[in-house]
Amino acid sequence: MSKSDLAARLIFHCRREAIEAHLTIVFTVLAIARDLQASTGWSIKKIIQTLEPLRHVTISGHQIEAEPTISTEAAELLNALGRQTCATQD
Fold first, then answer.
1. What is the pTM (predicted TM-score) of this model?
2. What is the mean pLDDT of residues 52-79?
3. Residue from 54, 45, 42 nearest 7 by CA
């Protein structure tokens, strides 16, 4: 996995507590990413690209929560992770 997969950027910390908190988050994200890869057989990049459209919609400059249309590929991924989808559309 690369930094671009998670849109990460360098963060500089100067206190021990901040460094430990940052490393905890980084290691947690890496553990989740490895689990997703092992559960699905997909790369993190493919998982992110597949689920990206499900995040939110923007209409006329306003961010709106809406019921997303779940693609067949996204439904396969969610089902591989043990989640049930109501309907699949492509």
1. 0.51
2. 75
3. 45
